[in-house]
Automatic annotation (TrEMBL):
<protein>
    <recommendedName>
        <fullName>histidine kinase</fullName>
    </recommendedName>
</protein>
<feature type="domain" description="Histidine kinase">
    <location>
        <begin position="20"/>
        <end position="236"/>
    </location>
</feature>
């Protein structure tokens, strides 16, 4: 729709504008972070200095996240697509992002999930954004359900998709939820309800999915949780046979 197009164009102009400095900025932040980390080691016996350094570190990490989101668009934003195992990426990224937290991922992903036609880096960014939001929505911990299934869209319902094969994945949290008014704005650039949020995560996610000819939508109930549904076109290629054999073998071996 026109609204969606405007959203993407707004974000892209921001990206092109900021993209040039985002790269240099990212390097500068890396240098600052490295020095903070060293200073923390030196100051580890001084709680007052240590806590100031932790705050500085957090601020730098937020700035890094911001530049990362902007960099996606400075690279032209055109996805470089190849047959990608969404199943592997979902499991690996989620497990990594929730490691050491009080949130337990639960996967429902079939063995025969189709590969998707996607830019791996951009897909990782989508998964990161959704999982980190879910994590932040569950400050007291809990279960995070990650589900995926093969889906043939016959064009008969009113999804904004072309007829064809898709992989649908769900990121289902049991966190704070989103009220109806906010739910209409979550994909807008700069919309955030968080003290230190950038409001770019879902806007970037939305436009990545759009550029993959996919579709993303969310359902939420305040106090119960939020579910994001993402549809991505399936690849024509079959899953890597060699890898499958190795996996089957390790499974048989237990
Ligand atoms: P940010 O995380 O920086 O605020 P996002 O674009 O990722 O930016 O998210 C925008 C807003 O959408 C958040 O501030 C929050 O209000 C809402 N939101 C996104 N994901 C969730 C979720 N899983 N649970 C509750 N609220 C969410």
């Amino acid at each position: 729709t026109e609204m969606e197009l405007m959203k993407i164009q707004k974000l892209e102009s921001v990206g092109v504008l900021a993209g040039g400095i985002a790269h240099d900025f990212n390097n500068i932040l890396t240098a600052i972070l490295g020095n903070i980390s060293l200073a923390r080691m030196i100051a580890k016996d001084n709680a007052q200095i240590e806590s100031r350094l932790v705050e500085a570190e957090k601020a730098c990490l937020r700035a890094k996240d911001l530049t990362q989101q902007l960099l996606t668009f400075s690279k032209g934003g055109t996805p470089v697509k190849k047959a990608t195992s969404l199943a592997d990426m979902l499991k690996e990224a989620t497990t990594f992002l929730l490691r050491g937290s009080n949130i337990k991922p639960e996967f429902e992903i079939p063995e025969n999930l189709w590969l998707v036609d996607a830019d791996e880096g951009q897909l990782a960014q989508v998964i990161n954004n959704l999982v980190i939001n879910a994590k932040q929505a569950m400050p007291n911990g809990g279960k995070l359900n990650i589900k995926a299934y093969n889906y043939f869209y016959d064009g008969r319902s009113d999804l904004p998709l072309k007829r064809g094969r898709y992989v649908c994945f769900l990121v289902e949290d049991h966190g704070v939820g989103i009220d109806e008014k906010s739910l209409q704005r979550i994909f807008d650039p700069y919309f955030t309800t968080k003290k230190t949020g950038t409001g770019l995560g879902l806007a970037v996610t939305f436009s990545i999915i759009k550029k993959h000819s996919g579709y993303i939508t969310a359902q939420s109930k305040v106090g119960q949780g939020t579910t994001f549904y993402v549809y991505l076109p399936a690849s024509d290629k079959k899953a890597d046979k060699k890898k499958k054999t190795a996996e089957t073998y390790s499974r048989l071996k237990g």
